[in-house]
Amino acid sequence: MYAGGVQLGAFALERLGGDERERVLRGCSTNVDNLAAGRWETLLSSAFVVEEPMPLAYALLLVAVLGYAEYAYGAWWTAAVFLFGHATASLLVYGALRGTSDARTRRALDVGTSYGFNAVLGALTSALPRGAVRTTARVGLLALAAAPVVKRGRTFTDAGHLVALGLGVGLSVALDYLSGAKHPKII
Q1: Cα angle value 3/173/144 (rounded, 5°)
Q2: pLDDT tens by residue, 59-116
Q3: What stretch of H or E contains 106?
Q4: Three-state SS for 33?
Q5: 84, 92, 97: which is closest to 47 by C-alpha?
């Protein structure tokens, strides 16, 4: 339902005029200017808005990851991890950019599903078999997310994706050690 709602919202935004669409997107963005002005509601609203409709492959991957997380751990766990990863990564990116004087960076659009998606994906590594498989998946995912960060044309969003994935993996590792419980395995 979440992915469908986000997608429908993106199609509705496309129908708005350019200025109105821009106003809605900017109002939901977790950019530096909004957070510095105390618009903390954007930590939630930004997770429900995307700049344009999601490509089919990404939308299906989002549904698959969130759907499996709901199946394996429940809807509340999935929503909590998603929102924790989204909000925390957004705040950490804000903290890193807060001192910038570049107006374009301070007002950049920062909306979408990707931070929450990455957090849930990282947390789901605890559903893999313990040992080499789980460790390899965690390291591999983090390496894939780090690749854009070390490239020349990187953006703060690339760093946010890595941070969100790291938060999810960290949560997964912490839960592994705290619970000691058996987790569902990916089929």
Answers
A1: 60
A2: 999 999 999 999 999 999 999 999 999 999 999 999 999 988 989 989 999 999 999 9
A3: helix 103-106
A4: helix
A5: 84
